[in-house]
Amino acid sequence: MARAAVSLPEELRRMIARHGARRLREIESMLDSALRPCVLVTSARVADRPLRRSAIGRMLRLGTASPRLSLTASKFGGTPYTEAADRPWASDAVFIGQINLSEIDDLPDGVPRRGIFAIDLVGSTDGFRVRWYPSPSEQEDDPGAVVCLGTHEASMQFRAGWTLPEGSAWEDAVPHEDEELREAWNEWAPLGDMREECHRLFGHRSAGLDDHYGFEPPRGRTNDVTEYEMLLRITFDNAAGFSWGTNWTYVLVHRDDLAEGRLERAVVTGANY
Fold this sequence. Notes:
This protein has six helices and eleven strands. By secondary structure, it is of the alpha+beta class. It has one domain: Roll (Hypothetical protein YwqG fold), CATH 2.30.320. Strands 1, 2, 3, 4, 5, 6, 7 and 8 form an eight-stranded mixed sheet that branches. It has a three-stranded antiparallel sheet with strand order 9-10-11. The chain starts with 9 loop residues before the first helix and ends with a strand.
């Protein structure tokens, strides 16, 4: 994947240079060295009809769609991939989506090249569970009737992208006392390529995680968010038909667990963007 090129706008360079040539060199070096690859995720509705209808829709006998994508496909909604330990499907579980890592060409270094990662709601709108299948098989059984979070089944598309630090890590790069520079710095969007309109795998943590809602760390780990990688950020999804309102959902995995391929130890938190 070709490395992104990031150059400071001339006016912003002049503003930074007021603080000395050394500061300008440091920031330009940071922009190059801090680039981290990510995978941007978009979706496409599989069928015009929804998977389920409202009470009025059922009363009017409006039709629904049956899931079309394969059990192992990356998707929101539809029929989830499961293995024997997950069947029968829990009555209080709501399927959100799953990602088959083997479908992604440009995964960052250190990420498993194979396996299906899935996320569900369980028990309430605040409860999540993650499922990780390192060696999925096309021969697994259909789990039967499953309730999905979204109204429609949607396939996923992946494309490579790049990220820079966000939130406090980005703001701290320029002098705090220069309010004019800080405003111009924060308004500049060097990677403005729909990155905030996509779901995202990996890359730098989103700014919202500076003030996340908390999570229960896996055994032996801390709840210090800086020790975790952002495995997945789920925003809203019009194709699949779901939204978190002003909140986004984040799946985090401790760096040591990621290095060991133990994605089943991922945790979920939320944040206001």
